[in-house]
Design brief:
disordered C terminus, mainly alpha, disordered N terminus
């Protein structure tokens, strides 16, 4: 039992710490750009508008490759079909390198059209051109990640993501800092910031190729069964059948951000002027969206580890185990989401003053956007559960309807005079609510819950209320003592986190044995 608890602690800490470090480095370079004199919110508008288009094409060219390839390779290995396992990898490299190359050329050639006509931010052209090679690198990298995951080396993918983020953060700061001493053109500075992404993805690919070579060198099989070589068309078909539903939902998720990049500036420039419109979009994309994405990343790390277990329980018809795993994943999501809503709503102004001392406008947008966290995280978790249950089409339908709601809300709310700044955020909240309602109703149709979602959320709500009550009073005490306001914010938030974690264990929200199994399934503890 002691060994299991020790493995559990090491596993969950390695998982959470890796995600914290990845996001920490992401926040570091974002803070640098936002607070950089001559860059700020306007520079972020150019930088992020280009990056969002790249992210959309990247999602299309990647096609959910890692999950599809890892699933097929692991199935082949379980049958000792090692020849076709390697063949699948080699064919996938060729096919998706070609797709990535097409995506690269498309973005480069159409950069002028996209920046002027679609985004209506002509300065983004340079960023799009410099980002285009990254699509090619990531397409190949995705195949290698799928191979490593299929070999149960998921921790290699985690290390690779961390390495890539460190390189991206480092190069972004270095390139912008050096070039800012020679020019003050924002479009050039935004362009080299995106160039950092391209270089980081290239180095990430080199890292993964080296890991692949090491794995292949160690894999010497003597008892493989001789199977007939699979046709290339069958390999591609199998990959696409598994990956397309996940890819479509991912594309729609990426396109949701592009809806903001297309509509916010386009609509607002007729109300408050083009310059102010770009600044408002910069606040939304580079400050609010980044902070809201933090809890989502932790939820991906924890909930994704439960999906293979759900699939396994379904395969062996273990209904009770399946229900327990689903309830546990929803409970863990609420444990993360609810305090984040309370914390970001309560401390939105203090967080902006702390992180963006030179550009702290927009804290009220964070306070409003915090309400979307709980719905987006629950939707995210249920997406994974439905995929584990084989209900991939529902995920796609939900994403499509959510996107339609987002477009309608942006068009309706952004032009309204008193709330135009908050129109895009209202659209995000409504979109997340609608998507959540759809997938949760479908989940309830197929799974009988022992506990309602409300019962699962009661303890996190009580713990969050206690957390906020204590931290606010401590913050006020620090202010009365005339301590530095930034230090007051840091200490109050740290104390809030400690109080909440204490409440989680005292109120017995988490079943240790179940979490241990979930972390073990990720392969990180290997």
């Amino acid at each position: 039992m002691k060994a299991k608890v020790s493995d559990f602690i090491k596993g969950i800490l390695s998982l959470v710490i890796s995600q914290i470090l990845i996001k920490l480095f992401g926040v570091i370079y974002s803070l640098y750009l936002t607070n950089k004199t001559g860059f700020g919110d306007k520079g972020n508008a150019i930088y992020m508008s280009g990056y969002q288009i790249y992210a959309l094409l990247l999602t299309i060219s990647s096609l959910g490759i890692p999950n599809a390839i890892s699933k097929i390779i692991s199935e082949k290995k379980s049958k000792k079909d090692y020849i076709n396992s390697q063949r699948i990898f080699e064919v996938s490299i060729f096919i998706f390198a070609f797709i990535g190359f097409l995506g690269c050329i498309t973005l480069f050639v159409l950069s002028d059209f996209i920046s002027k006509v679609i985004l209506e931010i002509p300065e983004a052209k340079f960023s799009l051109m410099l980002l285009s090679p990254a699509i090619f690198f990531v397409s190949i990298n995705s195949v290698v990640k799928g191979y490593c995951n299929g070999e149960n080396k998921i921790y290699i993918t985690a290390k690779n993501q961390f390495f890539e983020q460190v390189m991206k953060s480092l190069f972004t700061i270095v390139f912008v800092e050096i070039l800012s001493r020679k020019t003050n053109k924002i479009e050039i500075l935004a362009g080299v910031a995106n160039l950092a992404t391209t270089i980081a993805t290239f180095l990430s690919l080199i890292y993964m190729i080296k890991k692949y070579i090491n794995i292949k060198r160690k894999n010497i099989y003597f008892d493989g069964i001789i199977y007939k070589k699979e046709r290339i068309i069958n390999i591609v078909k199998n990959i696409l059948v598994i990956s397309i539903p996940m890819t479509v939902s991912a594309i729609l998720g990426s396109f949701g951000k592009n809806i903001d990049s297309i509509t916010v500036v386009r609509i607002l420039k007729n109300i408050i002027g083009e310059e102010s419109a770009k600044i408002k979009y910069g606040i939304l994309s580079s400050k609010v969206d980044i902070l809201i994405a933090l809890p989502l990343s932790f939820n991906i790390a924890i909930s994704t580890s439960l999906i293979p277990e759900i699939s396994r329980r379904k395969a062996i018809n273990d209904i009770n185990g399946l229900i327990n795993k689903i309830e546990m994943s929803l409970c863990m999501t609420l444990i993360i989401a609810i305090p984040c809503v309370f914390g970001m709503f309560t401390y939105s102004k203090q967080i902006f003053n702390l992180l963006f001392p030179n550009a702290h406008d927009g804290y009220e947008l964070l306070a409003l956007a915090s309400f979307s966290i709980i719905f987006s995280m629950l939707t995210q978790t249920i997406y994974g559960i439905l995929q584990g249950l084989g209900k991939n089409n529902i995920v796609v339908y939900s994403a499509i309807i959510g996107l339609i709601v987002k477009i309608i809300c942006n068009i309706l709310f952004i032009p309204i005079k008193n709330i135009y700044e908050k129109g895009a955020i209202i659209g995000n909240i409504m979109s997340n609510i609608v998507s959540f309602i759809i997938v949760f109703c479908v989940l309830k149709k197929y799974i009988y819950f022992k506990k309602s979602l409300f019962k699962l959320g009661i303890k996190p709500i009580i713990a969050s209320i206690i957390m906020i009550f204590c931290s606010i009073n401590i913050y006020k005490l620090f202010i009365v003592k005339k301590l530095n306001s930034l230090l007051c914010t840091i200490f109050s938030i740290l104390i809030a986190v400690i109080i909440y974690i204490f409440c989680v264990f005292v109120m017995k929200m988490i079943n240790k044995s179940n979490i241990y199994e979930s972390v073990e399934n990720t392969g990180i503890s290997d």
